[in-house]
Amino acid sequence: MSDGPRRYYTTPIYYASGEPHLGHAYTTILTDVLARFDRQDGREVLFLTGTDEHGQKIQDEANKRGVAPIELCDTMAERFAGAWERLGISHDRFIRTTEAEHKAVVTAFLQRLWDRDQIYEGTYSGWYCVSDERYWTEKDVGDDRTCQVCGKPVVHVEEKNYFFRMSAYQAALVEHIEHNPDWIVPDIRRNEILGFLRQPLGDLSISRPKSRVSWGIDLPFDSGHVAYVWVDALINYLTASGAIVPEAPPGEQGFEETSGSWWPADMHVIGKDILTTHAVYWPTLLMGVGLAVPRRILAHGWWVVGDTKMSKSLGNVVDPLALRDDFGTDAVRWYLMREMPTGGDASYTPERFLTRYDELSNVLGNLASRATSMIVKYRDGAVPHAAGSGLAGAIGQTLETVRDSMARWRIHDALGAAMDLARTANGYVEERQPWAQAKDPAGGDDLDETLATLARCLCVLCALFQPVTPSKMDELAARLGLDGVPRLDESTGIPLAGRRVSIGDPLFPRVEPAWAARSES
Ligand code: MSP
């Protein structure tokens, strides 16, 4: 991660063959939270997401539906973009691999590999999983001939392919990982890749004969073949960075000099299922063209149902948009970010969803509602002129924990600490008993201090929760009489005395969709 003022974050680009589900939403929201946190800290951010639109999987799905591949891609790209809008995603660029700009960058990239003698022609004989678009060895597929990742049957292929000399970069990659302990986060994933790299690394097939797959980008040096979809897809990160200028003469295309562009990416956020492609194929391909590798890869875990990965092909997906229609965008974001320890797996259950929602409603929502109501009731809606330092210690400690957790990409811990501050503030209300202070003729100053403290705490909470619950925090900022959600570093000092506070509907109202009928106990 650069310490500079700019950061470039990416999500994987999603296959345009199926609808967005909770797993996709998780990756995208996680990246969104990181991007928003950085923007709120005053950094300029490029946040990229998009759709992966070439390859056999898309070609087969389009055939199945009886539409042209591009029609399927147009539909699905719109579906993903629409889902991201409804889930409050603040991406700066939505890339589609069928865009002319991307095709030109892929072409320039492959030509560059070819010119540097990084590619040779050979024959591939082995197993292929169409669903994951991956080759597997005899050992990988076992006796039942199924894919290691998705469990679906694999097919045998034997064909002419072009190969990238990936094996030549094995030593350089191992050295890079060993010298950069935080390059792959969390550690368990880093160790997994180091373990994988203890075996000899083969070369990488980077093409498919058009006789088998025609839906792809032509190889510039053999129009009978298209680029392997993973190579095509990974290059999207480079396309959006602006590092390569395909129409410029070779040598001036940006392969040597990338200043001014967003490359290298500060962080690729991915799921653990696509770690090898990102931590082995991608960096070695970049080494092959002479470009810097990304600064960091964050591999998160899987959302599972029972003990099975949630996936379209397994037919057990949860629709994030349906949850959002019942509980609102911010509740879905909060649940996903708070429930899954960043990097680990988590199981989706409706009960846990409700428990997490109750936290928003009973702790944060309740604090906001009681603090604003009391300022309106006891001080005619104006934040009192008082130090408001009653929770300064807790606030200081929380900010430290949040910053520390975010710096280690433990988003769930950062959010847990923020919610604990709201809990502490509710405890402060109980302890101070402002309703009793209001009755006490000598309690005026104490009441002022209580209310000013609560206003300060809400102001800080507003900044802390903004990356994960942005629209509700906009509402809260408005109720506190602020011009907008304050920056985190300003939230402890921004003047509050005299601001006009207002009361509104509960921020997180009680919701009872049929599936969420709570048992009375
Ligand atoms: N198209 C490739 C990525 C190319 S990136 C250059 C791809 N697409 S995908 O649509 O299958 O899924 C992308 C990502 O969605 C996964 O890596 C993972 O981040 C996320 N998830 C899909 N299912 C998931 C879960 N059940 N749980 C958590 N995340 C999951 O792979």
Protein architecture, described:
This protein has two domains: 6-300, Rossmann fold (3-Layer(aba) Sandwich), CATH 3.40.50; 321-490, Isoleucyl-tRNA Synthetase, Domain 1, CATH 1.10.730. The chain is 46% helix and 15% strand. It is built from 18 helices and 16 strands. The chain has helices at residues 22-40, 56-65, 69-86, 100-115, 138-141, 170-179, 187-196, 229-234, 236-241, 275-289, 320-327, 329-339, 350-379, 392-407, 411-432, 434-439, 444-465, 470-479; strands at residues 6-15, 44-52, 93-96, 119-129, 134-136, 155-164, 184-185, 204-205, 207-209, 218-219, 222-227, 267-271, 297-300, 303-305, 308-309, 346-347. The longest helix is centred in the C-terminal third of the chain and has 30 residues, at 350-379. It is elongated, with a radius of gyration of 26 Å. The mean pLDDT is 94. The protein binds 5'-O-[(L-methionyl)-sulphamoyl]adenosine (MSP). 5'-O-[(L-methionyl)-sulphamoyl]adenosine binds next to strand 1, helix 1, helix 8 and strand 12.
Average of pLDDT = 94
Named CATH architecture of the largest domain? 3-Layer(aba) Sandwich
The biggest beta sheet reads:
6 strands, parallel
Q: What's the overall geometry?
A: elongated
Radius of gyration: 26 Å
Secondary structure tally: strands: 16
Topology, pairings included?
Blueprint: E1 6-15, H1 22-40, E2 44-52, H2 56-65, H3 69-86, E3 93-96, H4 100-115, E4 119-129, E5 134-136, H5 138-141, E6 155-164, H6 170-179, E7 184-185, H7 187-196, E8 204-205, E9 207-209, E10 218-219, E11 222-227, H8 229-234, H9 236-241, E12 267-271, H10 275-289, E13 297-300, E14 303-305, E15 308-309, H11 320-327, H12 329-339, E16 346-347, H13 350-379, H14 392-407, H15 411-432, H16 434-439, H17 444-465, H18 470-479
Parallel strand pairs: 1-2, 1-12, 2-3, 7-13, 12-13, 14-16
Antiparallel strand pairs: 4-5, 4-6, 6-8, 9-11, 10-11, 14-15
Helix pairs in contact: 2-3, 11-12, 12-13, 13-15, 13-17, 14-15, 14-17, 15-17, 17-18
The chain binds 5'-O-[(L-methionyl)-sulphamoyl]adenosine (MSP).
5'-O-[(L-methionyl)-sulphamoyl]adenosine (MSP) is lined by residues 12-15, 23-24, 26-27, 52, 233-234, 236, 270-271, 273-274, 302-303, 309-311.
